[in-house]
Amino acid sequence: MNSFKVGFTSTTFKEKTIEEIVQIAQNSDARFIEWGENCHINSLADAHKAKALCEKAGIKISSYGSYYHVGSNNAEKWEKICKIAAEMNADSVRIWLGSKDSELTSEEEYGLLLSETASMCETAEKYGLTVAAECHDNTFNNNTDAILKFTKDLKKTNFKTYFQSRYFRFEYDIDRIERTYDITKDIHVSYSEVTREQLFRKKDKDYLDAILRKFKEKNFEGIVMLEFTEDSNETAFLRDIDNLKKY
């Protein structure tokens, strides 16, 4: 089986410049970057600059990590996001699927989420983009059944989900991989030595091994992206990227 494609989110280093992020990618031999809207790429000029630097360094831009929440109903802002992603030659835009857990979403709210997401997918399609929902609490994509129902009802082929471990819920994670593999775009892995619920630590290595092994068994072709590392420390980052490249 081939090794995973490995990259990282630029939000791992929020205080770094675009030039510094690209240099970090070169130093780590990470071949993909997901550029974050919240700290690095906010305009077409930013996008053009990131694309030029990445092309020169031989690094691909995997996605645009937007912080657009479905429910904002801001078509103008969404179109701008798509234009920025296209300018970078990204193939997808990360979004947040609403602002509350699926269990707390009413039928009316659900219908509105579907309607707006459908419109967003149609706009994204004009730019050759996939719309990928962050896998996170406080969004509709907070559990497996919810995202499967949403995808089925949405009926848009350019809508996908990220995978992100729920940490310490191993059976849930494996079940989610099995049931959402076909609609999983990329994987976010937070990997660190510090104590935090959403970060894998050294002692959790067997857990991470099992999750990535399950993706490997399925010949996963997406990107495994490191998202956050110990205190945004470059030494820790290089260690964590090297660990992911071993898979």
Explain the overall architecture.
Helices cover 43% and strands 18% of the residues. With 247 residues, the chain is α/β, with parallel strands linked by helices. The chain has one domain: Divalent-metal-dependent TIM barrel enzymes (TIM Barrel). The protein has an eight-stranded parallel β-barrel with strand order 1-2-3-4-5-6-7-8, surrounded by six helices. Helix 2 links the parallel strand 2 (32-36) and strand 3 (60-69). Helix 2 packs parallel to helix 3 and helix 6 runs parallel beside helix 7. The longest helix is centred in the middle third of the chain and has 20 residues, at 107-126. It starts with a strand and ends with a helix.
Blueprint (SSEs and pairs):
Elements: E1 5-9, H1 18-28, E2 32-36, H2 44-57, E3 60-69, H3 75-87, E4 92-96, H4 107-126, E5 130-133, H5 144-154, E6 159-164, H6 170-180, E7 184-189, H7 205-217, E8 223-226, H8 234-245
Parallel strand pairs: 1-2, 1-8, 2-3, 3-4, 4-5, 5-6, 6-7, 7-8
Rg is 17 Å
Highest CATH level, the class: Alpha Beta
Low-confidence stretches: none
Strand content: 15-25%
Tell me the total number of β-strands: 8
Q: State the helicity in percent bands.
A: 40-55%
Q: Which structural category fits the helices and strands?
A: alpha/beta
Number of helices: 8
Number of domains: 1
Alpha carbon gap, first and last residue: 10 Å
Return the string of H and E elements: EHEHEHEHEHEHEHEH
What integer is the average pLDDT?
A: 92
Tell me about the largest β-sheet: 8 strands, parallel, barrel
CATH homologous superfamily heading: Divalent-metal-dependent TIM barrel enzymes
CATH architecture assignment name = Alpha-Beta Barrel
Q: Report strand order across the widest sheet.
A: 1-2-3-4-5-6-7-8
CATH topology: TIM Barrel
**How would the global form be characterised?**
globular
